[in-house]
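Quick note —
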Amino acid sequence: MTKWMGTLVLALTPATAVAASEETNTDALGAASVSREELREGVQRAFGPGPGDADVVDPRVEILEKHDEGDHERWHLRYRVHEDDHAYAYLLLPKPLPEDGERLPLVLCPHPTALIGKDRVIGRYDDPPDSAQEERARRARQYALDLVRRGFIVFAPDRAGFGERRLLSGGENVSRQMSAFQEKLAERWPGWRLTAGKNVWDLQRALDFLTGMDFVDPERVATIGHSLGSWDSLMLAAMDDRVSAVVANAGGMVHFQPELWEDADELREFLAGDGGGLRADVNLFLMLIAPRPLLYNWSLDDPYERGNPNILEGMRTVHAYYQEQYDGTDPYWKPQLSIHFHDRGHDFPGDVRQLAYAWIERQLDFEREN
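Predicted structure written out below.
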């Protein structure tokens, strides 16, 4: 031990993606001429004025408790993200525990919209499920627990306003908890967005210490999320190149805007504003993630699916952009942009989860023997 104590699939993997790209004129994608620096500056502008490099603090990570869960250990962490703001998370370590010198891939698991926060993704509740439907729903959100059982180091944090980071006591709902945290945030950084900015900052501060742990492989880091966690995964990967692969399930509902991809002037004009709302801004997140591997799990039956148009209509263009961004140093590798359509609404059903886990293993070149 170390000292740190019924679906429809459309997957643009290399074989199918090449054929798709032949029908797309990559020369028409003016977005390819806009630099990553320009893109990130535009996204930061949309996030609102917030902290900078000078505001990064020593996290002072504390291990509050360690729990032996049989097939893994669960560490309860407390750490600073600002001078006056502590965050809480679970760090899950698979058994057998990493040996000295062994570095395992890390998967971040931002939670969906649930007041209990990080407990949702490890399947930890105060009361038993009150129905078979509730039991199934709980299993569908425990992706952090599933992944540590497959041998990954897993990090499951509370988002600001959730779990141990709720400011209001009692039975206040999600909207009230988030509003309370936004009001607190505005006292120091007026205009900085809790839903797109603060969340990325907090996850980056966690990556600062996680990638320095001697049992974590900093070159193999993935993030996966459902619903709200999907949004956080996309935004984090867009703003931080330490993330190697992304799975977005039932979230990040992009309003595809072809002019942003095809016309550099249109894109720069968009970047000069303060964003077009999260659904429009996902166009930028996808550009910034390229050419790193991305898997979208999507349902056209999702009540949050707006279409008009969505990722389905834009897939050829997005794929062509991914190919354009790759420098071609490895002739046997193509950017892994995949999309999986299912018919289970706003959910993360078992077969889709298994697909996602196997996809992460392939992207991080990992299969641990237990």
